[in-house]
């Protein structure tokens, strides 16, 4: 991949404040169990950006190129409300990387396979959050960026080209359609989603795409307890259960985030997902 040195230098310069304050993540003990009780198992608090420190300089360059492309295209089309480089790093990149420490921990225990070669789908990826960042951070993974809006898919193709990623691909479509398509149904080890819908709708979008024994991961804000509780029935109907609610501490002004991890141990009944639009209109 040819990287323009001037672009990289400019981007790194404008990210200067971001790089200075990277906290260290220390592995925290988890208690692995699934639950249907009223109290969700929570982990000790994870620290964000742990993964950023471990990225190679090429991966950091790829993130900068991606963010730069996002900000450039955002001037012409509506991709994100965030318009400053540091803000994109703190809000979107941090949120994406925050998924990794708790996910890594759970995946090892529950999926009983190596964390390499993970086949992941990002449902409603929009401009590529968190899917693009995960594809950069985890080059051994196959990442599918699922997005229903054509213009966003065009940007995603551009972002993949500009970063030189060979492990990410774009699929344009609705989660409800893909969930009933044999080429995608129950084909993924992990489905992730951020800022797409509330949990009980997300469960119907994401879990039909996850193989039995795989995980559904939702990136949420600081206090998702009620939302998760309301989604318990929908998650169970899809053949899954809430495995862990993981608070992730943040040093950014946006405060604590939460990563919710569900484990699928039964096949999803054929009638789910329902027709496009129905999950959002009539949440389970
Ligand atoms: C608010 S944006 C969030 C994008 C990104 N995940 C993020 O965190 O910035 C939600 C995106 O999900 C897409 N979306 C919503 N419902 C969808 C569905 N049923 N299937 C596929 N994409 C969907 C929308 O087109 C939109 O781009």
Automatic annotation (TrEMBL):
InterPro entries noted in UniProt: rRNA_ssu_MeTfrase_G, SAM-dependent_MTases_sf
Taxonomic superkingdom: Eukaryota
Entry's Gene Ontology cellular component terms: cytosol
Pfam families: GidB
GO MF entry, a single one: rRNA (guanine-N7-)-methyltransferase activity
Keywords assigned by UniProt, alphabetized: Cytoplasm, Methyltransferase, rRNA processing, S-adenosyl-L-methionine, Transferase
UniProt-listed PANTHER family: S-ADENOSYL-L-METHIONINE-DEPENDENT METHYLTRANSFERASES SUPERFAMILY PROTEIN
NCBIfam families for this protein: rsmG_gidB
Protein name, entry field: Ribosomal RNA small subunit methyltransferase G
Organism, as annotated: Quillaja saponaria
């Amino acid at each position: 991949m040819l990287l323009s040195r001037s672009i990289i230098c400019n981007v790194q310069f404008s990210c200067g404040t971001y790089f200075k304050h990277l906290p260290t993540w220390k592995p925290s003990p988890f208690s692995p169990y699934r639950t249907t009780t009223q109290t969700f198992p929570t982990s000790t608090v994870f620290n964000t950006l742990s993964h950023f420190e471990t990225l190679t300089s090429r991966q950091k360059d790829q993130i900068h190129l991606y963010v730069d492309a996002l900000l450039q295209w955002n001037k012409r089309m509506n991709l994100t409300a965030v318009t400053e480089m540091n803000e994109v790093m703190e809000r979107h990149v941090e949120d994406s990387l925050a998924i990794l420490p708790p996910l890594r921990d759970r995946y090892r225990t529950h999926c009983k396979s190596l964390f390499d070669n993970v086949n992941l789908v990002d449902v409603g990826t929009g401009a590529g959050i968190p899917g693009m960042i995960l594809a950069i951070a985890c080059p051994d993974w196959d990442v599918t960026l699922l997005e229903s809006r054509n213009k966003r898919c065009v940007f995603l193709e551009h972002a993949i080209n500009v970063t030189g990623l060979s492990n990410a691909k774009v699929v344009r479509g609705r989660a409800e359609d893909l969930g009933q398509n044999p080429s995608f149904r129950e084909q993924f080890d992990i489905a992730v989603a951020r800022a797409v819908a509330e949990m009980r709708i997300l469960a119907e979008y994401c879990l039909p795409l996850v193989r039995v024994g795989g995980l559904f991961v939702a990136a949420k804000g600081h206090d998702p307890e009620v939302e998760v509780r309301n989604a318990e029935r929908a998650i169970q109907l899809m053949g899954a259960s809430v495995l862990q609610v993981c608070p992730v501490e943040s040093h950014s002004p946006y405060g604590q985030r939460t990563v919710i991890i569900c484990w699928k141990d039964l096949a999803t009944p054929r009638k789910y997902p329902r027709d496009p639009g129905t999950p959002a209109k009539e949440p389970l």
